[in-house]
Amino acid sequence: MPAEGLPCRGCLGRIGPGAQAGLCGRCWSLLTPLSEIRCPRCALDHGWGGPCADPGPWRRGDAFWDYHGGLGALLVPGIKRGEGGWRRALLARAGRMPLPPWAAEADWVCASPTGRLRRLLRGFDLAEEAGALVASRLGRPFRALLRKPWFAPRQAALTEGERRRSKVPVTLADPAGVAGAFVLLVDDVWTTGATLRRCAGALAAAGAREVAVLALFRAGRKGGSRAGGGVS
Q: Which residue of 74, 107, 169, 198 lies most exposed, with the fewest beta carbons within 10 A?
């Protein structure tokens, strides 16, 4: 059966114009940018001038899309189960999203690491691919600076409290050139920020002058955007 005759894998409606990778144009339109009224540090919408709702050890943080407000909660789990078409389509769209102006100040770009066994089994790392894409757009070098243990547990399987209490270490794979540098830390989904905090701590311990965060998706919290899923 031709692709046009198959239902959309998201909404099960007619595939129609604008379809890509088995998702119709209507579903792709639900790839929702974050609110313009968002904190320049935590990327959550808590009103202009209010205190940061989720402060991390960085001054600047941003993301492209709302994880729970649109298509992210379907795309990311599917990609991590091997939906290569969705992965390529998502990264192509990320390549067209505007970068925060401060990203151009970065000396290095790195990614929040996945457990090494899980990365080996998947054959790819979405955060690493996003980081390499951002580095290419900025004309900056991408380095796999950080790593987790071989058997790190899946963050998506943990509650928010469990993620925040998690003691899975993040270590520096290669500290060369980190001292005095502004490092842009890229992730696929920024949820509680627990892993990102450990990443930033490892970079700061190596002497990084500044760490900033950029994610494909930002998962909000109850009472703000929305809470739940995601990985970091």
A: 169
HSE-up (13 A, CA, CB side) for residue 87: 19
CA Rg value for the chain: 17
Contacts of 112 (CB under 8 A, 6+ apart): 127, 146, 185, 186, 187, 188, 195, 196, 199, 232
Give dist(CA 134, CA 162) in Å, integer.
30
pTM of the model: 0.86
Ordered mean pLDDT values, 10 residues apiece, the chain (232 residues) = 71 88 93 91 81 88 91 94 96 97 97 86 94 98 89 55 63 90 97 92 96 95 39 52
Contacts of residues 81-84 at CB distance under 8 Å and 24 or more positions apart, as own/partner, are: 82/122, 83/21
What string of DSSP letters covers 150-214? Answer: TTPPPGGGS-HHHHHH-----EES--TTTTT-EEEEEEEEESS-HHHHHHHHHHHHTT-SEEEEE
